[in-house]
Amino acid sequence: MSYKNYLLILIYLFSISFVSCQEEVKYTEYIAIPKTETGKKLVENTDLVAIVYNDTTYELKSGVSVTEFGFLSMTGYATHMFIFHVDLTEPNINIEVSTPNNSPIFGLQKMTEQAIYEDSEDDVVLGGVNGDFFDMNSGEPFGIVYKAGVAIKTYAKPPSGVPSDEFHWFAITNENKAIIGNQDNYDDLKSDFQEASGCGVILLQSGKILSNTSTALEPRTTVGVTEDGTEVYFLVVDGRYYSYSSGMNYLELAKCMKALGAFDAANLDGGGSSTFFIRDSGIANNGHFNVINHPSDNGGEERAVANGFVIKFLNK
């Protein structure tokens, strides 16, 4: 066999091998398959979810449900979130602002401890989340605080560099309706506040996603309300644990809140403060609460915070 023929045979074999290899290349097709109604909303109404690996919903009490949703994002990040859905039209279901020792004095205390002071046989805490940003030395929250119709703090003290006219708030009215507002409508509505606390940036306003500058993936806590104010969503997403959950940015949070059905939504304190807890073993065992998310401080240690929101069942 001549060198020329030998070379032609090699080229032919290489061509066949190359074509064969090309034909065998297959790309993985990701299909997100939710199991719950909440998971279905997040999959179908956002562009965030590539694969669902945990989707569970359970009811704490009629009108209060918890969804745990874990997924691989379209950007390749593991994400794990926890969602309260609270129906305020359900008799005896309330949302209240919690403070350390259930007191009007500023301070710092873990949410599971705040819940103990809020809990009683007739006023049962089912679960809750952390609330407003705060001064980590004094425990003074940056925004307003109302408890049981009493104004504890009526002005904003935002973080350094944030104008005071950018403060926002989440409130429960005397009619047991939820609203999210800002400095512009505060004076007109404050007389109707039963419970209220400050918030961070607005993520969703009148059904429209707002533009925010922060793109960092962080642990987050978020609150959203429906247009008629009868339903509330609290969402906590874990972060800073790459293989478990990397967190979310503001745009992703806004997309989730809109998908769930919120009309307005605001960011709450996040990072190591993000806490999602529920009552242990139902209403029979008063005073026992479990943090079910994974806080980012010290490998999962619950942080002491200034205030939060507790979901209650009036057991009467």
Question: Would you kindly provide a written description of the structure presented here, covering whatever features stand out?
Answer:
The protein has 316 residues and is α+β, with helices and mostly antiparallel strands. The chain has one domain. It is built from 5 helices and 20 strands. The chain has helices at 3-24, 37-44, 111-118, 183-189, 250-260; strands at 49-61, 64-73, 78-87, 93-98, 109-110, 123-130, 145-147, 150-153, 168-173, 178-182, 193-199, 202-205, 208-209, 220-225, 231-237, 264-267, 276-279, 289-291, 304-305, 308-314. An 8-stranded antiparallel β-sheet has the order 1-2-3-15-14-16-12-13, with helices on one face. A hairpin with a 2-residue loop joins strand 7 and strand 8 (150-153). The protein starts with a helix and ends with a strand. The relative contact order is 0.18. Residues 6-11 have low confidence and may be disordered.
